[in-house]
């Protein structure tokens, strides 16, 4: 493998792109969905099982890992890849989004954010410089610039002030990141749902120069229509030859809509979180395995799915083990959800490469409109 980080677009269909991100630890096929391994694990899954679903890259969480077990400890133990037994690419977020959610436990200044740990109440400080150092210790392949993500709704003045500070932090992140061959730094566009602010943010990031660009500050309460409204123009403000990453998205229809609008990478806790709470995502929509109608159903979740949950177990069994509180419930449903999300990404990649994206989207929407199979 090359020690370079490189993005190549192999095909386009409208604004959608399919391609490959080359890293020293392997290729990332795009459009890509990144399962979230918040605390150095995708909950209820072995790393090799996550890979078996088709995942090329995982996301780790800087905020959670810095608190427990600590970035220095992970570095002493050989880095995050070795620590969690995932030899392929890892992207780490900067910690900014999690700190945003601690509004009552933080103090925000131009320098950075001081906050109290949700684990033990201890005081910590995150700045562009400390975030870059923590992510360096973790050894992630793709590092995210430190930013502030304002919760929506917010006034345009508040969003503009926050965005401009994030752009100053982006420049400090770039300086602190330095020259790290084989590792990439992504800048994060902010600006809420205001076109002019999004464009201003994109211009500032391009002037600094990054290996990739994220679209942040969406999927934080604005609704799908508003999010798609931003995605109708925001990807076009970013360089054509760099990957575009939509942070924290999302549901299958969010993913399809984002890819159609030119997004290359996404992440979300939804597949694993849903699996642990008895929710399955299928090509016909969402299934709540808790419902009593599944108790005597010998059919699989999805007869066309090749995951272990669908090829080896009935809806009746999945209903039973969830109701009984057995760990295998979360394991099987999470595996199914991750498999389905990766199958969706593979279908999008193939459709873009074949110039049939419109037909793929029409089939996707038609299947979801049918709803789940009828009870027996």
**Average pLDDT number:** 95
CATH architecture of the largest domain: Alpha-Beta Barrel
Computed structural class: alpha/beta
- Find the CATH topology of the largest domain: TIM Barrel
Biggest sheet architecture: 8 strands, parallel, barrel
- CATH level 1 class label of the largest domain: Alpha Beta
Number of helices, counting only DSSP H or I runs of 4 residues or more: 15
Element layout with pairings:
Blueprint: E1 6-13, E2 16-23, E3 26-30, E4 32-37, H1 47-52, E5 58-60, H2 62-67, H3 71-76, H4 80-84, E6 90-92, H5 96-100, E7 106-108, E8 113-116, E9 123-126, H6 128-138, E10 142-144, H7 156-177, E11 184-189, H8 195-208, E12 212-215, H9 224-231, E13 244-246, H10 252-260, E14 265-268, H11 270-276, E15 279-282, E16 285-288, H12 308-312, H13 315-323, H14 327-354, H15 357-370
Parallel strand pairs: 4-5, 4-14, 5-6, 6-10, 10-11, 11-12, 12-13, 13-14
Antiparallel strand pairs: 1-2, 2-3, 7-8, 8-9, 15-16
Helix pairs in contact: 6-7, 7-8, 11-14, 13-14, 14-15
Which tags fit this structure?
2 domains; 376 residues; eight-stranded parallel β-barrel; alpha/beta; three-stranded antiparallel β-sheet; TIM Barrel
């Amino acid at each position: 493998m090359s020690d370079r980080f490189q993005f190549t677009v192999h095909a386009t269909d409208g604004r959608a792109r399919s391609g490959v991100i080359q890293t020293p630890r392997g290729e990332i096929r795009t459009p890509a969905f990144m399962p979230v391994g918040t605390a150095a694990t995708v909950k209820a899954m072995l790393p090799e099982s996550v890979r078996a679903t088709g995942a090329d890259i995982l996301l780790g969480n800087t905020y959670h890992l810095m608190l427990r077990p600590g970035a220095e400890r992970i570095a002493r133990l050989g880095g995050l890849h070795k620590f969690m037994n995932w030899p392929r690419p890892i992207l780490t977020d900067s910690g900014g989004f999690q700190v945003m959610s601690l509004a009552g436990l933080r103090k925000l200044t131009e320098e950075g954010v001081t906050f109290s740990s949700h684990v033990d109440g201890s005081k910590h400080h995150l700045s562009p410089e400390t975030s870059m150092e923590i992510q360096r210790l973790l050894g992630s392949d793709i590092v995210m610039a430190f930013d502030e993500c304002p919760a929506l709704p917010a006034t345009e003045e508040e969003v503009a002030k926050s965005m401009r500070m994030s752009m100053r932090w982006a420049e400090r992140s770039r300086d602190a990141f330095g020259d790290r061959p084989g590792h990439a730094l992504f800048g994060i566009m902010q600006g809420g749902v205001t076109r002019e602010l999004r464009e201003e943010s994109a211009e500032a990031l391009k002037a600094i120069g990054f290996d990739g660009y994220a679209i942040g500050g969406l999927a934080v309460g604005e609704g799908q229509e508003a999010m798609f409204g931003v995605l109708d123009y925001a990807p076009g403000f970013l360089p054509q030859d760099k990957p575009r990453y939509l942070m924290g998205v999302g549901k299958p229809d969010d993913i399809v809509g984002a890819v159609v609008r030119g997004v290359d990478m996404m992440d979300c806790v939804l597949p694993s979180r849903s699996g642990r709470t008895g929710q399955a995502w299928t090509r016909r929509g969402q299934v709540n395995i808790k419902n009593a109608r599944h108790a005597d159903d010998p059919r699989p979740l999805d007869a066309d799915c090749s995951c272990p949950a669908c090829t080896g177990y009935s809806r009746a069994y999945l209903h039973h083990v969830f109701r009984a509180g057995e760990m295998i419930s979360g394991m099987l449903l999470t595996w199914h959800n991750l498999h389905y999300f990766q199958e969706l990404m593979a279908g999008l990649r193939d459709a873009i490469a074949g110039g049939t994206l419109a037909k793929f989207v029409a089939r996707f929407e038609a299947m979801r409109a049918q709803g789940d199979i009828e009870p027996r």
